[in-house]
Amino acid sequence: MTSTEQNATEQVDLESMIDSCIASAESRYEDWDTLGFQAAKGGDRFKRAQIRYIGSGATGNHEGDARSIKADHFTFSNMRLPVGAVGPEHTHHDVEEVFYVLEGQLEVAVHDVEDGTKKATRVLGYRDLIRVPAGVPRSLANVGDSDALFCVIIGTPKPELPTYPPSSEMFGVTR
Description:
By secondary structure, the chain is α+β, with helices and mostly antiparallel strands.
């Protein structure tokens, strides 16, 4: 193989590699069904959309979705939370979770492990971030006057299903 042919082959491999690492905004969609089981149980205030980029997250099986980049070490998605909507109290026992706000105002709560009625809350806005450690119950609420859009990063390629503690409105609900 000549050096010109080798450079052409390397260029093609680099081109393929970079293309396989991009998840463009145009190819994303708001999936309102993945967490729809919560809205079916608790009403529209639990309705929210997941927009997957890397991996499929903990809830739902989207491993066959060719639009998402395969997760090697973490998952990354955006979540759209309508005005007044909530993400119920839940716990990821195996992994930390990060929320990074892009639009709107998001109230994030961490709950006491023993007594979920005890909690600390903070309102996050544009470019604010919180990391919630594994094993700590957490919940979300859109407290603004427009949709909240935020990034969700989970520190493993396929997290265990979260659980809903007794203090959660989703207690006893399964996917």
